[in-house]
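Lab notebook page, bench 4
Experiment: in silico fold of construct C2
Operator: M.H.
Input chain length: 386 residues
Purpose: comparison with the prior construct
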Amino acid sequence: MDPKRKQMIVSGLCKHFSVEPEPFLGGVGETDIKKLYSNVLNSSGKEVSAPKEEVFQWLEFVEGLPLDSTACFPALEQLNGELVTKSVLLGKGLTPSGADIAVFSALHSSVRGLPDSDKKKVPHVMRWVNYIQNREELSELFGPIPVEEPEFDFEVLRSAPKLEADSNAKNVAPGQGSKTVDKSETQQSNKKNESQKKASKEKEASQEKKKPAETAATDKDKELSVSLLNIQVGLIRKAWKHPSADSLLVEEIDVGEGKVRQVVSGLAKFCSPDDLTNRLVVLITNVKPGKLRDVLSEGLVLCASNEDHTVVEPLLPPEGAKPGERVSFSGIEGKPEEVLNPKKKQLEKITPNLFTDEKGVATYKGIPFMTSAGPCSSKIPKATIK
């Protein structure tokens, strides 16, 4: 299975089962997806209603999915048929199971890339996708999948009294038609006026509520701003292989503190220790320190990755950038958190907005990562950054 897809599945399962993902992501490329599911479930200590054998059947379905959106469409049609009479793949009532999370995470990039014409061909899949991404808050983790939802037409309600009046008119006795129609028209007019008054009051109430709602949205944007992250330029002084994980490297990074920080990164398959030594990098220094495979990590090196996760490289600050200087974003002010709170999932909510543009410039929502010497960049254009 594609390593990036496997990472997305594990990240989704960890969020679903309320487990920190770091211990499982390090060796994700070397572990079977069924084993990873079992490890995450066991780590959560939760009991689930969906039998493991049935979950494994869906994991086998996931393992056979093509990466390309077009090639994946037959599988979506199969899934659409499965969901005709179901709200979720497995589980009781409306409660999603690990199978729902795994399939959603695996299909996320394929469904997100579907043209609207194809989305309309699999309406049950889109209904399920919209439910899962909102119910499990996975849109915050992977980015939202646009789903076109039907809008409620209030004009239909306003015309309903007229339809009722017309119906009554058709059923009146012979010789009474003229009188009944007049009465119906009067009732219709009265009801229409009442409906318009009610709509006007609702509109006024809505406008009164709009300001606090907008304020709440603004506060939420501030809460999730990139300014919460302390992103700094660092110089790797030394790097070596992790003693117990083939996919991990350990680096000692100078960020201008008078001492080096030790950071563990999943870069062993993409870079050698020699490649990283004496190299400038960009890292988040206010993540909560923790151990990865028994080795302390005090930061997160930000890397660019292509779509299928076959090419990964640390972001490159420009020549002349100083170790320790903080990366800034034009128009975005704010003081970083002293230490990010893992329970608030701040990092997971911000990183979907980090990517390189068509020229390889690293950006947050299109705003460049700036240093005193210029923007940070990567050789990989239109890459995700994590």
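Observations: Residues 177-223 form the longest helix (47 residues). The domain at 3-142 is CATH 1.20.1050.10 (Glutathione S-transferase Yfyf (Class Pi); Chain A, domain 2).
Next step: discuss at group meeting.
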